[in-house]
């Protein structure tokens, strides 16, 4: 079984905590490491499934959770999994700020037999999936390592597979003979890298790749029509694809310019030209996808984006810009020439096409636009450190819109330019939004969360910290010629994304085709 991604050559790093490691990029960390609970991203209402934990109990105000750890699980080196390993993992996150990307306020973490009790200093209603979906590492392997730097080239996990070989273009894993979940039906799996979407699509249509996390242009003819066993399932999650704008410097630091760009973008055209309609346009001013429509506050019900070049130009003219609509002649109210650098990784053909279209629309306003397509590592460094003007990026999903807004504008992610930010790449600062997000996370009633969300959405709409454009589909392109058991639209038992915790569950469900 071969899985494929279009991120280009990797470096030998199997550290599951590092988001840019090969294990994270390619997704094989979830073949090796496992979470306490399995949950369904594409159907948040579905009841979570016990995994390394057989039971979990939250107290009434969500300031404590108790996990009962499964007996009989062993690490791939033969050492038993214990509650102490689970406590060690969460203490590692607690004591290493760089790992605590959800800014979870951990309190005491204790064990008693096979039970782990985790306390928090505030309500963690919104972080239930973050706790459930945290992969667990072994204390005896990690206790003397720096989790922010160690490359972990011989990973030891409890998962269904163990790493056999590694190369810059891909890895091979074999079934864990001591896996607690029983014998695997797929003895060997590979994760391979291609330089771009086109190369990966070619490998898929020729039968070299069974499951590709890739945007396929004209997928109905380029993929589905090639073989009746080829399948495509693109479910949307409660997240969005956003043009993150650098709000700390450059053209987008002016709210008027952000508003003008958001107004001129034709999201429907972006959907058609960028993804041949596979990713639906964001229509609500709140940035919420269709799956989140029940969370739209009453102030914004029925209020949608309407693309208008004339309205966008009027915004700039009113704000004192000159040269509006004249090629490469736009100047801001202080007389400075307006130039924009847009960036996304080379080979991401959907994002690259969308960025070109957005660039042409910004040029229509009179700005000078440069579109860059560097390597993934270079792009990641640019975005994380704020060395860009605009970049398309996804937001995390969840069972509420909390992650969309947290990722877009919460100041807990704020870092000065030049320092690495995990989200809020645009360095947007709003004490009001940050306070409302904090209160939303700590709320003990739906009424309070509704009130906080109204405040959050108002800041999002009025101050335009980012520019939402498309829903986030999960690119599920796979073939059932050799193996079946995939999650499908008719059997959506979990997320099909090969880079999420759900991949562990999928790997245990696959079996040879008859």
Automatic annotation (TrEMBL):
Pfam families: SBP_bac_5 (PF00496). One of its GO terms (cellular component) is periplasmic space. SUPFAM superfamilies: Periplasmic binding protein-like II. Gene3D superfamilies: Dipeptide-binding Protein, Domain 1, Dipeptide-binding Protein, Domain 3, Periplasmic binding protein-like II. One of its GO terms (biological process) is peptide transport. It comes from the Bacteria. Residues 47-407 form the Solute-binding protein family domain. InterPro entries: Peptide/Ni-bd, SBP_5, SBP_5_dom. Keywords: Signal, Transport. GO terms for molecular function: peptide transmembrane transporter activity. PANTHER family: OLIGOPEPTIDE-BINDING PROTEIN APPA, PERIPLASMIC BINDING COMPONENT OF ABC TRANSPORTER. Belongs to the bacterial solute-binding protein 5 family. This is Putative Di/Tri-peptide binding protein. It comes from Lactococcus lactis subsp. cremoris (strain MG1363).
